[in-house]
Amino acid sequence: MVHHARPIPGCRVFVKFNTSEFPGEDTTKYDYKLSADSNSPFATIDSLTCGNYYIYAVGIDSLLDPSNWICKGGLPYSTTLVTGIDSMNVYITEGD
């Protein structure tokens, strides 16, 4: 997860299956939830099947003032890969 070109460790990541539309900020509407390690901006989602997904991330940019400023954002993701690894940046913002 990236905020203003800075990696943001420890983000929570939410995945909605079978859609490319933003399901909203209510994280109870997502099908899968995971967290990046507290020292890493990377989260690994394993064993996705071919299809459409919406990836949403929420994190804290400790370099902002106040230092607990929540940043969030997401993007649609589609894959036709049967095997292999894919990676992407999820850009998050404080609303600017």
Features:
globular, four-stranded antiparallel beta sheet, 0% helix, 96 residues, mainly beta, two-stranded antiparallel sheet
Task: Briefly say what this structure is.
The protein has 96 residues and is an all-beta fold. 0% of the residues lie in helices and 38% in strands.
Summarize the structure in words.
The strands form two sheets. A four-stranded antiparallel beta sheet has the order 4-3-5-6, with no helix packed on it. The chain is mainly beta. It has strands at residues 2-3, 6-7, 12-17, 32-35, 51-61, 69-79.
**Average of per-residue pLDDT values:** 85
**How much of the residues is beta strand, in percent?**
35-45%
Distance between the termini: 17 Å
The poorly predicted ranges are none
Overall 3D shape: globular
Give helix and strand order, one letter per element, not per position: EEEEEE
According to DSSP, the number of beta strands is: 6
- Indicate the radius of gyration in whole angstroms: 13 Å
Write out the strand line-up for the largest beta sheet, numbering strands in chain order: 4-3-5-6
Number of domains: 1
Report the sheet with the most strands, covering strand number, pairing sense and barrel closure. 4 strands, antiparallel
Q: Number of DSSP helices?
A: 0
Helix content: under 10%
What structural class do the secondary elements suggest? mainly beta
